[in-house]
Amino acid sequence: MAQAYLTETGSDGQGPERRGSRLRRLLDGWRGDRGIWRRGLILGALAVILALVMLLHAQIPNTIGNLGSLTETFLPWLGLIIPVLLILAFVRKSATALIAVLLPAIVWLNLFGGLLTDKTAGGGDLTVATHNVNADNPDPSGTARDVAASGADVLALEELTATAVPVYEKALASTYKYHSVQGTVGLWSKYPMTGAQPVDIKLGWTRAMRATVTTPNGQVAFFVAHLPSVRVKLEAGFTARQRDKSADALGEAIADESIKRVVLLGDLNGTMNDRALNAVTAQMRSTQGAAGSGFGFSWPASFPMARIDQIMVKGIEPVTSWTLPETGSDHLPIAARVKVDATAS
C-alpha cells in the first residue's frame, strides 16, 4: 500500500520529472526535423533587418521626413520586437529564425544594455533639477513646491508664461534666494547667481539663457534651454528643422563658454541618440547615461516613452541621476547629483 501511495503522489504532474519530460518532448519534436532550417526564412530576414536598423541608425537619411531622427528618438523601443520574433520562431519551429534573432538581441544589448544597470552612487556636492512645467499647467504653485522638494540647489524651469512667472517666483522664494527669468525659461539657485542673460538659439524670441552660479566649490556656468518642438505629420514626416537649427546654435554657445565647468538643463525635444543634437551631445555627458538607473524616460508624463528632458555636464562628474514624480505638467521633472571639483579651473 505504501508503494502504491508513493507511485500515485509521484505522478501528480508537478514534479521535476514531469517538467523534464515536457522539455524532452519539445526537443524530440525538433530532433530529426530537417525542416527547422528551411522554415522561418522570412522571420530570419526580419530579424536581420531589425539588427541593421539599430546598428546603422545613424545612416538612415533625414532627407525624407527626418526619418533618421524619428527612428533614433524611439530607438530603444525597437527592442520590443525581439521577443515577438523569438516567440514566432519557436512557434514555427525554425532554428534559422532563432539564430537570426540573436543578431538584433546582441545589437540592442550593445546599444542599451549599459542603461539597464544601476550606475548611481553616493556623494556629490551639488543637486540640480529641470522641469518643463507646461504652459497649461493647472497648478503651478503645487508644481513649484514639488520640484523644490527634490532638494535641488539649482533648478531650471521651462515653458514659463508671463502670468505664471509670479506664481513660481512666490512659491520658490523661500527656498531659492537667487533667480532669473529670461523669456520662457528661468533659473533658481540657492547660491549667488551672476551674469544671467538670454542665449540666442535663432528663434526670434527667448527660450534659452545662461548664468554663472558660484557654488561652494567654485563657479559653474549654467545653460537653460527649451528647444523648439518637433511634430510627426503624415504629409511631412518628423518635422524638426527649427529644432535642429536651434540645437546647433546652443552647441556653439556652450562651446564658446569661458568657464570650464558647465551644466545644461532643459527640454531639448530630442534624445541622446538623436543625431540632430550632436552639436550639444558631442561635447557634454548625460547624467542619466553616466550615473542613472534605467532609461529615465521623461515624456509624456502619463506614459513616458522618451527622455527628451536632459541634464548634461562638462568638466563636472555625474554621481547619480533620477526622474522625479509626476506634477501637473505633461513632462516629468528630472534631477541629478554631481561632484564639482574645487581644483578645476
UniProtKB/TrEMBL annotation:
Region of interest (Disordered), ranges: 1-20
SUPFAM superfamilies according to UniProt: DNase I-like
Transmembrane segments: 41-62, 74-91, 98-116
Compositional bias segments (type: Polar residues): 1-11
Superkingdom assignment: Bacteria
Sections of the chain in a coiled coil: none
GO molecular function: endonuclease activity
Domain Endonuclease/exonuclease/phosphatase, first and last residues per copy: 129-331
Pfam families noted in UniProt: Exo_endo_phos
Keyword annotations of the record: Endonuclease, Hydrolase, Membrane, Nuclease, Transmembrane, Transmembrane helix
Name of the featured protein: Endonuclease/exonuclease/phosphatase family protein
Organism this protein belongs to: Streptomyces lutosisoli
Organism classification: Bacteria, Bacillati, Actinomycetota, Actinomycetes, Kitasatosporales
